Amino acid sequence: MHTPETTATVGVGDRDRLLGWLMLSPALLYILALVGLPFVLAIALSMTSATVGDPSIHGFVGLQNFVHVMHGSAFALALRNSVIVTVATLFFTLVLATGESELLARDFRGKWLIQILLILPWAMPVSLAGVDWLWLLDSEFSPVDWLLRQVNLLGPGTPLGPANHLYYYGKEWLGLGSIVTINVWRLLPLATLIVLAGRTSIPQDIYEQAQVDGAGFFRTLFRITVPALLPILMVAGMFTALLVFGDMTVTALTTRGGPGYATQSLPYWAFLKGIEGGALSEGAAVALFMFPLLLAGAVLALRIAYRAESQGDRP
Amino acid sequence: MTRVLRRLGFYLALLLFTLFAVFPIVWMIITTFKQDGDLYDIANNPFLYNLPPTLKHVTFLFTDTNFPKFLWNSVYIGVIVVIITLLLSVPAAYSLSRLVGSWGERSGVALFLVYLIPPTLLFIPLYQIVTFLHTSNTVWSLVLVYPTITVPFCTWLLLGFFKSMPRELEEAALIDGCSRWQAFVRVALPLSMPGIATCIVFAFALSLSDYIYATVFVSSAASRTLSAGVPSELIRGDIYFWQSLMAAAAIVTIPLAVAYGLLFDRLVKGFQTGSTGGGDAA
Hints:
Chain A is mainly alpha-helical. Chain A is built from 14 helices and no strands. Chain A is flat and about 75 Å long.
């Protein structure tokens, strides 16, 4: 412990710090160049009159683009739907992930096969999942409609009738419900992985003690598992929320925002305006509306996670 | 009695979760092998083969579409992105956990801030950057931007890994006369292999899954990826090549699901250290 090199390891020595910055800088520079710079560019762009035809950043128009997009009829619906879809997906995903991880924390025969089947939705690229669900809930050939007709829930003279089809993507609330279902379906495996990681680090003897004390399944779940899982549920929730809120793929491939603007979302509206419609600056303005909402959500989640952790729920 | 009920409840719940996960996939696989006359007859039971199954639409996918090209592009981009991601995030995570002091240890939050800027917020300015660099319409535009998704995530995951690793191991190596760099390469790196494996899986999955960049930056079919290419090639206006679409989705999904499923426990471990590490930093 007396050579210069080893004293350097006790604190952080100058040479270590230099090496540290050398090792950090490639990633840092990359992120600054391709996340930081575009973010600033997005803000700059949103205050100009740039279009696909004339993409240069001049012609400063201040907040005019923001005011303009906010007055469009699509914007309010897109904002509302983005929030509704994210909150609903978050709720169902976290509840189901807690349940699913509770099952997978146990050992049973054929578990490896079940794990493959349960992770299937997450293995599928989002756009292909969108196409799969587009066909699954097809207006004419949906097998879900067929099953409902077989059990006399759909069709003339039935509770969901009189039509023979539900037209999932052609109606406002059914469309939003379908989008939520698809998002829960595709993100549940990831959320379960994360929650399971937290679940398996809860010491087993707490459960044995609970069993000795005669606590039932639900009592154990709500008194021990959920409080101990709170920090990791926040992590899982944050990933889920970011992946839903920032996603346009599911909407783009299923409802396409319709009917009218009834199932429009902020990211897809930004895409339609900025790229398809050619109004780059207005698209950037719509996309920027996502940021304060994401920031608020993240701050909230981090606070809850931090509080739960500092209260010492974890041994 | 309660024991039997509990077991029953357990398997019932497991069955429901599995059904929810596989139902759309089963439908996809059934569709793949259906003849047109069978598929588009509303009177048929859609889950059965009312006419003999056919491989016609799978063959069509490989011989009459750009699907093989998309498959190749996706794998090619995925592999390069994985390599770039590891080269950037492994040293960065080690540096943050060990070398740059207390500031670095709190960087879990900073990494999360990068996630708060999703691709749908960045695609318009990035489109301009990609055009400016003359890479639009090539696979290189995607190779350039995909690490913006993978690097923050993998750095965060690895940060947790390195933090959970006892410092004494590297310090022993330093006492034995290794330099810090050698301690990193010979001691820390081999121990972080499970974390690196998780990163490889996630980086590949994330780059495969992207739709928005692939759609906006690349418009020529020859450079498209699976995510963007399959829907645009097999949905032509009002005509949907359903069987081929489902075949494409199945061919991509099933091998990946088997790989992820077999790596399941390892992925959970990756999140265990990763996420609690991120949580501490919060």
